[in-house]
Amino acid sequence: MNPVASQDRELARTLKESKAPAISRAAAILRLLGKSDTPLGLQTIARTLGLVPSTCLYVLRALVTEELVAFDTETKRYSLEAGVLTLARQWLRRNQFTDIAQPVLDRISQEFDVTMLGVNMVGLDHIIVVAVSQSSATFQLSAQIGTRFPALISATGRCIAAFGDYDVDELKERFMTLRWDEPPSFEDWLAQVEETRQQGFAVDQGHYISGVTVIAAPVWKARGQLSHALVAIGIGSAVRRNGLAALQQELLTAAEAMSSQLCGEVSPEAATAKRRE
């Protein structure tokens, strides 16, 4: 399975279904350029997003004028311009989750030799990677800050379904559009969602990416408002060898502590210390 190709298809589908095509075209181009390691030409951008080249060129020229996209006159290729940082600056300034999550991700990644992600949840539409920590393991997921995945995919998707107030029919409609290496049946997936609700975290053992185990624990920004998740990813056999149960507990404990911080609640340890004073 190629996550990058899947993301390209998702971009094109979102663009096609948009009720504000002009804005969606610009956003899709920015996302495509943002996840590309190299500048892209007009034809590549238009073909990937399913746009008419003349329309694509019109949008690109507008983005260049706004200093969000750079155009190389020699190679005739486009890339992101520094102007996008202006848009991101305010979000980065108030994004408490990333500041809290990064040291946690680094610690768990090194201790259990897994790739760690901090993701932001956007309803049933998608999740966005906002923090990353790669281990020294041979397997490393190609996910960078800003990478988007379908909301209900893998372990994180089970958390969204378990702790969000969503109708089963709506979940099924979304579920049927997902692409897995080894897809579970919807009935089995619903049972796993219920298990997630009971134990407080989710596990995907080889369904999303064959041979890969994904564990996700939900993080709340406010009471009753699921906003983020901590995600651990590694080769299934290596994860089991390094201690699957211990990793699950570590992830759950870290997510609960972060939820308390983001919600402004006092941790049990702090409350105990306060009573002793």
N-to-C SSE series? Answer: HHEHHEEHHEEEHHHEEEHH
Structural class by SSE content:
alpha+beta
Number of domains: 2
Largest beta sheet: what is the strand line-up?
6-5-4-9-8-7
> How many strands appear in the DSSP assignment?
9
Rounded to an integer in angstroms, the radius of gyration calculated over CA atoms is: 20 Å
Morphology: globular
Protein architecture, described:
It is globular, with a radius of gyration of 20 Å. A hairpin with a 4-residue loop joins strand 2 and strand 3 (77-80). The protein has helices at 3-17, 21-35, 42-49, 53-65, 84-94, 96-112, 154-163, 168-175, 186-199, 236-263, 268-276, and strands at 40-41, 69-72, 77-80, 115-122, 126-133, 148-150, 202-205, 212-222, 225-235. The chain has 277 residues and is α+β, with helices and mostly antiparallel strands. Helices cover 53% and strands 20% of the residues. Helix 6 (96-112) packs antiparallel against helix 10 (236-263). It folds into 2 domains: 3-87, Orthogonal Bundle (Arc Repressor Mutant, subunit A); 95-268, Beta-Lactamase (2-Layer Sandwich), CATH 3.30.450.40. The chain is built from 11 helices and 9 strands. A 6-stranded antiparallel sheet has the order 6-5-4-9-8-7.
